Amino acid sequence: MFKGFCLVMVTVAAVVLVAASVAHADQGTATFYTPPYVPSSCHGYSNDGVMIAAASDAIWDNRAACDRKYKVTCTGATNKGDPHPCTGKSVVVKIVDYCPPGCRGTIDLSQEAFATIANPDAGKVNIQFNQYVYVRQSNVSL
């Protein structure tokens, strides 16, 4: 009986954790930068691939943002140059760099990541983003 109760509680806790990680999304803007992507503030000359981003002061958190992942979705245009820039897709990026003061966006996406969510001709778009936490589901036996 106790084993069953514990299993139910662990399952409920996992569901609450997943729900909490997707329930809150922040609003901001995204821009993009072009290769080369190294060196980076977080990893020097290590190649982190192309689904990466630089964090502005809004989320940099004195380097604590390094290696955080964010799910980013375009929500609309910031100018009249491209009134419908969004592709309807989202992208998950890893923070590997710092976008210094004067950064034009909340998150400065790699060119490839930006192109996944929006037309690069837009240059800057409104976004919704939240920290992405991958929760691996596993069978728990007590």
TrEMBL record:
Subcellular location: Secreted
Leader sequence residues: 1-25
SMART domains: DPBB_1
Keyword annotations of the record: Secreted, Signal
Keyword Repressor: no
Origin superkingdom: Eukaryota
InterPro entries (UniProt xref): EGC1/2 (IPR044206), Expansin/allergen_DPBB_dom (IPR007112), RlpA-like_DPBB (IPR009009), RlpA-like_sf (IPR036908)
Pfam families: DPBB_1 (PF03330)
GO cellular component entries: extracellular region
Domain Expansin-like EG45 residues, every copy: 28-131
NADP is among the record's keywords: no
PANTHER family named in the record: EG45-LIKE DOMAIN CONTAINING PROTEIN, EG45-LIKE DOMAIN CONTAINING PROTEIN 1-RELATED
Protein name per the record: EG45-like domain containing protein
